[in-house]
Amino acid sequence: MQILQEFKTCDRILPAHSHLYRAGERLNDIYNLLSGWVALYRILESGRRQILQVELSGAFLGYQPKLVDPMLHSAECITDVAVCVFPRKAFPDLLERHPVLGLKMIGMMSQDVVRTHDHLTNVGGRSGMERVAHFLLNIYLRLRHDQKAQGCDTLAMPLTQEMIGDAVGLTPVHINRILRQLRERRLVILQNRTLQILDLEGLRRLAEISQLYVA
């Protein structure tokens, strides 16, 4: 957004697999994701990773209710990413001076709440195949919306099977088996970092999404 240009410290490019920040860190900056994919995650006491959210371009990262508190999650770059960096201390003034940005932030945070509720329902209330179908369909719809590729059924997908498993609470072996079953049912093909939806309506029914919304 043009509004951010007067407040930003700099733009940064980070390589895939690097961290924007880690849980426990106190940040001096907030980040607006200009391009790329970022995974927000926590490490459980068992050592397993739980991916909380996959963030795409446009997301604000490093923001939480009390800006002075340490981060409760880590942010890892799935792909190379570009971020706009601006100081946390300037953020309240930025929102006060630019109500339009504040409204945009409210909209984004409301959408985050919807995604969180959706994610909890998916992990806690669906079978393994339904979880994976729902996760892939949700990512697909977000990508199609962001890229305005309304007629495209094939999109880049940098997530590994391990990452998908960490997002939906299944092992990579289980994910591999489910992806094979989805392919055999002519619903989805995920290979060579590409997601191809073969039967959008069939995948929607399996994922139990009543309408093709973007969450």
- CATH architecture annotation name of the largest domain: Sandwich
**In total, how many beta strands?**
11
Number of domains: 2
Uncertain residue segments: none
* CATH homologous superfamily classification of the largest domain: Jelly Rolls
The percent of residues in helical segments reads 25-40%
Per the CATH scheme, the topology name of the largest domain is Jelly Rolls
Computed structural class: alpha+beta
Number of helices: 6
| Level-1 CATH class name of the largest domain | Mainly Beta
Share of β-strand residues: 15-25%
Succession of helices and strands: EEEEEEEEHHHEHHEEH
Q: How would you state the average pLDDT, rounded?
A: 85
First-to-last CA distance:
22 Å
How would you sum up this structure in a few lines?
The protein is of the alpha+beta class. 39% of the residues lie in helices and 24% in strands. It contains six helices and eleven strands.
Can you walk through the features of this model?
By secondary structure, the protein is an alpha+beta fold. It folds into two domains: 2-99, Jelly Rolls (Sandwich); 126-207, Winged helix-like DNA-binding domain superfamily/Winged helix DNA-binding domain (Arc Repressor Mutant, subunit A), CATH 1.10.10. The chain has helices at residues 91-97, 99-125, 128-147, 161-168, 172-184, 200-207; strands spanning 10-14, 19-21, 29-35, 38-43, 49-55, 60-61, 74-77, 81-87, 154-156, 188-191, 194-197. It has a four-stranded antiparallel sheet with strand order 1-8-3-6, with no helix packed on it. The protein has a four-stranded antiparallel sheet with strand order 2-7-4-5. Helix 3 (128-147) crosses helix 5. The radius of gyration is 18 Å and the shape is globular.
